Amino acid sequence: MTKGRADAFIVMPSPMLFGEHRHIVELAADNRLPGMYQAREFVDAGGLMSYGANLDDLSGAAPRT
Predict the structure, then answer these.
(1) Confidence check: pLDDT of 9 > 80
(2) C-alpha span between 9 and 58 (Å, rounded)
(3) Looking at residues 40-55, what average pLDDT do you find?
(4) Which of 33, 37, 55, 61 is 20 to 30 A from 7 via CA?
């Protein structure tokens, strides 16, 4: 993405990518590349924004505070 001079990126839902959410957010920050993610966990790790279903609501888990 940096070689191609991307202006931003979107992470689509993927179990493989979700497992690496902290690393992906770190790479984005290191390269000053804004990203939009499918899950709140990316934002909790420092990502810019997320848009998608609330995983806690889907699973019936207690809400986070």
Answers:
(1) yes
(2) 25
(3) 89
(4) 55
